[in-house]
Specification:
alpha/beta, Rossmann fold, 7-stranded parallel beta sheet, 6-stranded parallel beta sheet, 20 helices, 39% helix, globular, ATP-dependent DNA helicase RecQ, metal-binding
Length: 569
């Protein structure tokens, strides 16, 4: 028997249970069909649940192999599976891959003629079709309803299941009716729901709206340890130089996500002028152009795609080496999906988001204008607006924090973390390609002006995090009463533990805060600890910056705060 966690739909709680173990048969089928000797995390549990004819909901990160979970059971003789997905590129790629393996699979979308649809239906009726891919809107068309009422469907796999959430980031009203469609079938199939972005609290709601019956709950974790995360505060003019340098300095395929079609075209043209094999991709392109660009990207040309969110979802290219977001996303869910395009082969990959304060101001205006637009109920629209603005706040926190970026991301999705630092993000470890300092930007600006080109903006990043804009003439240092406590604490702490800390932990200690790190390392015994109780964080932060500018404090290579007279051991 195999131990499982299932979701009790009456209480919303997880409970323990057992299912018959089909591991041996599943592994044999996996080897025969795919040539793999073992499953990835979560795959075997999902396959086993389906073979036991038990509903399931699986939260698995991008690139974890969700498709194997429903494709493998679909290979059984005499079975028929319907896969519901909003991602045409994914459906097209998976059908082609299955057909290449000799698996009878088909896709019905707007490009399939009535005659072709009927041929597909006839193949399924005759037992010659194993997997049929459709968009959720297709379920309620007259011909598909007639087909479904006269055909036994063994498995309904619902991909991107979070789209059912009415105040979710990717809400699609057609997903609300999937549960009703399933309930109306003459014989209820096993229903398997998959998503990469649902938080722990959202899972019961997704299961309820899809009509799942006590589903097995599978969660493999959101962490993508092979991806390094960086967030850089750069004004748009500074971003141009950064992105050009980035593409020039990083080999392999990459994606630059832009928030407008105009930016996609501009960046593709700009990169092409610099000798980069690049193309723009966005929703209004014709299906023919989309297919051409997607197929070319899979084959390695173009090397770089400049895209809106229309690109990447479901494009099965495992060796994308980097993703740059030219501006923040509207939510961490959207960001996680886009960043997750990188490194699906498990090899080292990069995610960089470039942002500035005006980006978030613009996002707030857009969300307030359009949030909940697909909903008729005013209360639901208001709830949708609050939810979307809350998700934007989380994205802004990710960009602004000086804590571990991976930890912030995983905390948001409700995943417990054992470590405070991941050693693979911009707030934990330093890398030179994400260190854009004001002096370098000024040097580039002077060089650009000598060439007669557009002046490069001097706004940028001090060290690795956002920092403040540089002043051409530094103001003279004027001491304040709190300065002695700050300098004493930083110096004493460095002598005690031999290294610097980030601003946040320094400020917390000066305010008399407590925590495992502070207590365990004896920071509460250092001179200056607790001497600024009652002083607000912003004021202390400003004094730290002033002291650093005056040379009484300095920054370590990891942007840690150090005594101005010492070096980090």
């Amino acid at each position: 028997m195999m131990d499982v966690d299932y979701l009790d739909m009456r209480t919303g709680e997880l409970c323990r249970g057992e299912l018959k173990d089909y591991s041996k048969a599943a592994l044999a089928r996996l080897d025969k069909a795919y040539g793999y000797k073992s499953f990835r995390p979560g795959q075997l549990e999902a396959v086993n649940s389906i073979l036991n004819r038990h509903d399931l909901i699986a939260v698995m990160p991008t690139g974890s192999g969700k498709s194997v979970c429903y494709q493998l059971p679909a290979l059984r003789d005499g079975s028929f599976t319907v896969v519901v997905s909003p991602l045409r590129a994914l459906m097209r790629d998976q059908v082609q891959a299955l057909q290449a393996r000799g698996v009878p699979a088909a896709l019905i979308d707007s490009g399939v003629s009535p005659k072709q649809r009927q041929s597909i239906y006839d193949m399924a009726h005759g037992g010659g079709l194993r997997i049929l891919y459709v968009a959720p809107e297709r379920l309620w068309t007259d011909d598909f309803l007639f087909f479904a009422q006269s055909t036994r469907i063994d498995l309904m796999a619902v991909d991107e299941a979070h789209c059912v959430l009415q105040w979710g980031n990717d809400f699609r009203s057609s997903y609300l009716h999937i549960g009703e469609f399933i309930a109306g079938l003459p014989s209820r199939p096993v229903v398997a729901a998959f998503t990469a972005t649902a938080t722990r609290s959202q899972v019961p709601e997704i299961a309820e709206k899809l009509g799942l019956d006590q589903p097995v709950r599978i969660g493999t974790g959101f962490d993508r340890p092979n991806i390094r995360f960086d967030a850089l505060k750069l004004k748009p003019s500074a971003r141009k130089r950064f992105i050009l340098d980035w593409v020039d300095g990083h080999e392999g395929s990459g994606i630059i996500y832009c928030n407008t079609i105009k930016d996609c075209d501009s960046w593709a043209e700009r990169l092409a002028k610099h000798g980069v094999d690049a193309a723009a991709f966005y929703a209004p392109l014709t299906d023919k152009d989309k297919a051409r660009i997607q197929d070319g990207f899979l084959a390695g040309s173009p090397r770089v795609i400049c895209a809106t969110t229309a690109f990447g979802m479901g494009v099965d290219k495992p060796d994308v080496r980097w993703v740059v977001n030219n501006g923040p996303c509207e939510s961490l869910e959207a960001f996680y999906q886009e960043a997750g395009r990188a490194g699906r082969d498990g090899q080292p990959a990069r995610s960089v988001v470039l942002w500035t304060d005006s980006d978030f101001i613009n996002w707030r205006y857009r969300l307030q204008d359009h949030a909940g637009g697909a909903l008729d109920d005013p209360e639901l629209r208001e709830r949708a607006e609050r939810a979307e603005l809350g998700r934007l706040d989380a994205m802004q926190q990710y960009c602004e924090t000086d804590e571990c970026l991976r930890r912030v991301l995983l905390d948001y999705f409700g995943e417990d973390q054992d470590r405070e630092h991941c050693d693979n993000c911009g707030n934990c470890t330093y890398v030179a390609d994400c260190d854009v300092n004001p002096q370098e930007l000024r040097r580039r600006s002077r060089s650009t002006r000598r060439r007669g080109e557009t002046k490069t903006d001097t706004g940028g990043k001090t060290g690795r995090k956002s920092g403040t804009e540089p002043e051409e003439e530094q103001q003279p240092y004027e001491s304040q009463p709190e300065d002695e406590a700050i300098v004493s604490f930083v110096a004493g702490r460095q002598k005690l533990i031999g290294r610097g800390f980030g601003d946040r932990k320094t400020i917390l200690s000066l305010q008399g805060g407590t925590g495992e790190d502070i207590d365990d390392q004896g920071l509460d015994q250092v001179d200056g600890y607790g001497e600024l109780v009652g002083m607000d964080e912003r004021t202390i932060k400003d004094r730290i910056e002033t002291l650093a500018a005056a040379g009484l404090l300095k920054r370590g290579i990891y942007h840690t705060l150090l005594d101005g007279k010492e070096t980090e051991s």
